[in-house]
């Protein structure tokens, strides 16, 4: 897989576990509030990539100290060799948490069937009618709804999360987002941090809804 970053230790990204995080390179969304701008391009220059072999080497070295790996991004599910990478990580005895934007329910379905994920977090960017504005691209919202349903019914530990981008989402929008979350699933609302937002006008918290 192509990775644009790796953090060898985190206590806050995998609920209940000491973990590392690998950041997949490339994303199909351009959320105006994204602050991972360096991870969005699918073909970055070679030197901005983090070798998969280095991640595996570190995980091997930290066996017994770390419990899990968070695979975040970018959007990991866009890389067709994600299952192979997760198999390697599982083979080292690690639990896996996957962060996704939910645009590839086919990949989620495959990963769940192969038991390659132990925890999943999916962003719900906005009410469906405003999804494309908050994702920065035209989004197939049927795929988003399919992913939400797959995750909710997967029986895996999971949560959904929404960034409260106050210049773009009002209270009515946030209520509509909450209605997308099936009963029994948790919605975590994250505060919006305007620093380094992809859309320059948001960096000043400008009202552009
Ligand atoms: S889904 Fe949005 S927030 Fe996440 S990496 Fe892609 S552009 Fe950034």
Features:
single chain, alpha/beta, TIM Barrel, 7-stranded mixed sheet, 6 helices, 20% strand, binds iron/sulfur cluster
The shape is globular
Largest sheet: 7 strands, mixed
State mean pLDDT (0 to 100 scale).
Answer: 95
CATH domain class: Alpha Beta
**What fraction of residues sit in β-strands?**
15-25%
Ions and ligands: iron/sulfur cluster
| Neighbour order of strands in the largest sheet | 1-2-3-4-5-6-7
How many structural domains? 1
Rg measurement, Å: 17 Å
What structural category arises from helix and sheet content? Answer: alpha/beta
CATH superfamily (homologous) name: Aldolase class I
Structural notes for this entry:
The chain has a 7-stranded mixed sheet, with helices on one face. The protein contains 6 helices and 7 strands. The chain has 209 residues and is an alpha/beta fold. β4, α3 (105-113) and β5 (119-123) form a beta-alpha-beta unit. The model has no long low-confidence stretch (mean pLDDT 95). It has helices at residues 52-61, 82-91, 105-113, 131-135, 141-153, 171-180, and strands at residues 3-10, 19-24, 68-72, 95-100, 119-123, 158-164, 187-191. Helices cover 27% and strands 20% of the residues. Bound molecules: iron/sulfur cluster. Iron/sulfur cluster binds at residues 27, 29-31, 34, 36, 39-40, 73-75, 101.
